[in-house]
Here is the input.
Amino acid sequence: MTVEPAAARAPHGPGRGVEAEAVDAGYLQKRELRSGTAGWLLLAGLGVSAVISGDYAGWNFGLAEGGFGGLLIAVVLMAVMYTAMVFGLAELGSALPTAGGGYTFARRALGPWGGYATGIAVLIEYAIAPAAIATFIGAYVESLGLFGITDGWWVYLAVYALFIGVHLLGVGEALKAMFVVTVIALAGLVVFLVGAIPQFDAGNLLDIAPTDAAGASDFLPYGVIGIWAAFPFAIWFFLAVESVPLAAEEARDPARAMPRGIIAAMAVLVALAVLMLVFTPGAGGSAAMAESGNPPVDALAVAGASDGLTRVVNYAGLFGLVASFFSIIYAYSRQTFALSRAGYLPRALSVTNARKAPVLALLVPGAIGFVLSLTGQGAMLLNMAVFGATVSYVLMMLSHIVLRRREPELPRPYRTPGGVATTGVALVLAAAAVVATFLVDVEAALWTLAAYALFLAYFALYSRHHLVASAPEEEFAALAAADEDLR
Here is the structure.
C-alpha cells in the first residue's frame, strides 16, 4: 500500500514529490541497533579515533600546496569551521537523535531531496576515507617490515576483512576495542612530541623556496592561492569528527551525551593539530615532510632520533591509522543503515544480525572501498573523501539555519553558542573548501561529482517513490508537517 505522508500535503512541506509506503510490523524489528551502549566518553573516543590517523599521515601533503604558512592559515580556518560546525551538530544531534546523523537533520530541514543529498555526500566521504587510510596503513606496514609484506593490496584486504569482522560482533565490542586502540595512538603522539620538541628548529618550517606565485614569500612560498589549495589537507586534521551523531540510537541519554562527546572530541583534535603541524616540520623540515608517507617517523629520522624511538612511533602510527579506519567503518555502516531503513537505498542493506549489526551495510561499502584502495593513490582518495565531506557540511549547516528559523519551538536540549551566526561561518568556509578540492585535483573532484550525480539519479528515478513511512526520519517529517498544519 502506498500512502502520502503529511509532509507532502503541507503547502511548503518538505515531502513534495515523494511517495512513502507502509510496511509490516516486522520491518523495523529486523532493522534495530543496540541502544544504550555508549556514554559521552565513548562518543568522544569515537570522534577522536575517526580523525587521529590525520595526525599521523595525510595533512603533510598540504605543505606541498601552501608551504608551512599556507597550511598554517588553512588549519586555523578549518579549525574555526569545524568548531562552529560541531556546535551546530551538537544541537541537531540532541534534538534529532537517530542513526542518520546529518541525513536526519537535512531531511527535517530541507525535505527528502536535501536529506538524501546530504546522506549520500556523507556516505561518499565515509566509503572513500577508509580506502585512503588503507593505503597509509600499507605504507606503515611496509616501512616496519611486518611479515615481509611489500605489496600493499594484501594489507588492504586484511584490514578490511579483520575490522569489518569485529564490527559484525556488535557495537559494544567495536566501540570498546576502538577506544583502546585510540588510547595507544594518542600515547604514540605524546612519545613523538617528546622526541621532536627538543629537535625543533624554526628555520625548518620555512625551508621551501618561494615560487613566482602572487604574494609568494618565505612564509607563503606558493602565494596566497596556496592557502586555499591547502584546505583539503588541513581538513584531514578534523575529517569525520562529525560522525559522532551517527551513534545517537546506540548512545545512553543522547540528548546529554551527544553534545558532551562531540565537543570534547573537537577540543582534543584542535590541540593535536597545532602540535603536529608545528613540531613535525619543525623537526624534519617542511620540504622533506611535504612528500612523506610517514611524517612523524621521517621527522624523527631527519632529526637524528634513536631507532628505538622512531620504531615506537611507527607502531603507534599504525595504531592511529587502524583507529580511524575502524571507526569510519562504523560511520559508513550507520549512514548506509539509516538511508536503507528509510528506503532511500535498497532496503536489504539495513537488515541487522542477531547482534544488532547491519551486515550488508558493513560489507557493501567495504567492498567498494577495498577496490578503490587498490589504486594506491592515498592523496587522490583523500581529496575525493574531502569533496563528499565538504558538500555535506554545507548542507548540514544550512539545515541548522533553516530549522532555527522555521522550527524555533523544536525541543533543543543543547543550543549552539551564537546560533545561526556560528553555523553561518561554518557554511561559508565549507563552501570555500568544496571549491578548494578542484584546485588540488580536478580529476578526482570530477570523478566524485559524477558518482554523486549517479546516486542522485537513482533517487530521482526510483527510490523517492519507495520510501518507508514508518522509518524514524519519515515519521519526524510527517509529525512536523502535521504540527505545521495545525498551527
In short: The longest helix spans residues 102-144.
